[in-house]
Design brief:
CATH class of the largest domain: Alpha Beta
CATH architecture of the largest domain: 3-Layer(aba) Sandwich
CATH superfamily of the largest domain: P-loop containing nucleotide triphosphate hydrolases
Radius of gyration: 21 Å
Structural class: alpha/beta
Shape: globular
Number of domains: 2
Oligomer: single chain
Number of helices: 15
Length: 370
Amino acid sequence: MESHRRTADGTAANRNPAGLAGSVSALNGHRPAALDDAAFHAAAQRILTTVNTVIDGKSDAARLALTVLLAQGHLLVEDVPGVGKTLLAKTLARSIDCSVNRIQFTPDLLPSDVTGVSIYNQSSRLFEFRPGAVFANIVIGDEINRASAKTQSALLECMEEHQVTVDGHSYKLDEPFMVVATQNPIEMEGTYPLPEAQRDRFMARISMGYPDMDAEIQMLETHQSASPLAKVTPVVTTAEVAAMITTVQDVYVSQAVKEYTVSVGRATRESPLLRLGASPRSMLQLLRAAKATAALDGRGFVLPDDVLQVAEAVLAHRILLDRKAAGAGETAHTVLQGILQRLPVTHASAGQPGTRPARSAPASGLGRNR
């Protein structure tokens, strides 16, 4: 990876240490064109098929991971060791022909290991910026809650602004950019809870859970000699992913659906069972995830059902229970379900655009189970 160089007085020579080769936006110089229906669903199907080939019995997790990628978000995968958290992240990354870096978070990991560091070169009398592991299209942060709070916070600017600031100089990250972080439950030894500000940067959180019996037997058969991950090859290019993201951005959202989305967030802030409700940022991310869900379902417009489908994954890790509610046995899941059940749902037809035609039915395997 190319180093960024600047003189001793701080004059910058190049502001993109990763170069232009990995940046779709830099190569094209404009917003990528959206894909047509057939191309979008063919690309999505290839990604999902690849992930499901490696991760047995977790098609919902694979779909949500793709949803977050297309919605330009970041994904937090939380569960006990050994259920495939890192394998999911690696498989998604390998299915795309893009730059990938993996960070193993440990208590002694430094912020500069993540973002990079400026080093003075005595022979050239220049400061050289050595990019950290975050300079990639997809960054896998393994066991993120085993690092100190200072190191965890090094990701904040990267995740929100897609840039790194070191010694007063900002460096843009390549696009598309996604962080897929895994973590163990906070009750486990040697873990540090993620602060609220960092949890809010993740668009969605999922729990892998244990596979069912059939999936576990299938795993024993397919993972005996070698991991299927070794056979995974890219099935889409970075440019295709960028075009898929543009397609999702073009999904129509009616005023009624926007109002329903905001009402969900406001209901969490007004709930007596919560001491911290959903932030305005989470409303943006909830709607983006709903747009990606609609696109994967073959529609060019968002329905309230799309918001409902991703609401728990997007909001559950952001809210904090009141102590009395937690003591009474309430969970983020039960509180959110209660809020969603009480809120009046906008009529489905209100989500449809008046002049735009809906996209065709989704390709096989893309639609959610009803």
